[in-house]
Amino acid sequence: MLLATQTSRRKFLLSSLIALPAMGIAVKGLSAAAAAELAAPSLEGYKPTFFSPVEWTLILAACDRLIPADGRGPGALETNVPIFIDQQLAGDLGSEVYLQGPFDVNAPSTLGYQLPYTIQQIYQKGIAGFDAWCQKTYGEHFALLELSKRDAALKKLQGGEVDFTATGETALKGTLFFSELLNHTRQGWLADPIYGGNKGMKAWIAIGFPGARASYLEWVAQHNVPYPLGPVSLTGQRG
User: What is the pLDDT of residues 152-192, one digit of tens each?
Assistant: First the structure.
């Protein structure tokens, strides 16, 4: 009970700090972007809701290579992308999908979703199959591979060269698992921070996106002109 009270108090204080700049009140030594950074959970201390510890380790390593921190912008780990994926899979995104057969796993993509699996199951089976393939191919878990081998393994997963049959999986293809992981990684990087990713609105700041500002019509027609105002999140955080 005490822990819950302390957590609620911390959230209240941080929310208050974030709101002050929006009201024109400066907090000495703390910018709005810094306040938004403090409000976001720490990736190091985060306890996944959906992923097991082994699955979480692979997700961290994969996201780090899909959007690396290479100096051109914040990486997936800097922006809490794995937290976004975990929270989305623990909610409706992971479990709510129409699963009425019959299914034809070899049908063309124009016929829509053809798997008897929820998104949660795609991740669980995909992670198990991919890590088993890495151990067979490289003699090591994906998360323990050197960076060049991680990149090579992900390219083979994307290209359909990773076989999941070693774990008894015949319906799920590596290309589909990679597509889901890449799409959710992108979404976590670009989404509003309210959904768990884009910590501190770093991605929006990097690309000059205004976020949820009520009006920025005067800038729409000004091509090749940097947007001068920072982004605003759905909760009123300012970057």
Answer: 999 999 999 999 988 888 888 899 999 999 999 999 999 99
Q: Tokens for 9?
A: 């108090």
* Residue 167 and residue 128 in contact, taking contact as beta carbons nearer than 8 Å: yes
Gap between the Cα atoms of 154 and 62, Å rounded: 8
Arithmetic mean of pLDDT over the chain = 81
What tokens were used for 143? 């998360």
- First CA to last CA distance, the chain: 33
Rounded Cα–Cα distance for residues 222 and 130 (Å): 46
Residue 230 near residue 206 (C-beta atoms within 8 A): no
Q: What is the pTM of this model?
A: 0.77
Which letter does DSSP use for residue 231 in this model? P
Compute the C-alpha angle 237/83/185, nearest 5°: 95
Helices (H) and strands (E) in the chain, counts: 9, 0
Instruction: Dump pLDDT digits (tens) for 6-21.
Output: 444 444 444 444 444 4
86 φ/ψ sector (left φ>0, alpha ψ -120 to 50, else beta): alpha
